[in-house]
Amino acid sequence: MTAAFGFLAARAAVPDTAVAELVGRLRALAAREGHHLDRVFIDRPGTSGYAELMKAVRSAPGAVVIVPSLDHLARLESLQELIRLEIEEAGGHLLDVGAQSAVMREEE
C-alpha cells in the first residue's frame, strides 16, 4: 500500500481541538481515496513538521501528502506551487482536502 502522510500548519493560537478536527478531515480524505494515513506532520512555532514530512516523502517513493488546504503549505500561491513541485520531485503526490471537498460539492 502507498504511504500517505498528512501535513498541517498550526499557529500558536490554534487550539488543540481545531488541530484534532483538521487531522480528522485528513484521515477521512485518506480513507475515501483508499489510503491509510501513516502519520500527520504538524508545523508549530519552533518546530519544522515540513522538514520531517519531506524526509518521510523521500524515504517512501510514491507517497501521498494530504493537506487541509494549500494555505497550510504557504500563504502565497507562488510558494504553494514551489512546495507542490518539491513534493513531486521527492516522489510524492499532493492531495488538497479543500479542493477535494469543492469537487465533491460540484458533483452533487
What is this structure's SSE topology?
Layout: E1 4-9, H1 16-32, E2 37-43, H2 49-59, E3 64-67, H3 77-89, E4 93-96, H4 97-107
Parallel strand pairs: 1-2, 1-3, 3-4
Question: Could you describe the 3D structure shown?
Answer:
It is a single chain. The chain is of the alpha/beta class and 108 residues long. It has one domain. Helices cover 48% and strands 19% of the residues. The protein is built from four helices and four strands. The protein has a four-stranded parallel beta sheet, sandwiched between helices. 26% of the residues are buried. The model is unreliable at 101-108 (pLDDT under 50).
Summary?
With 108 residues, this protein is of the alpha/beta class.
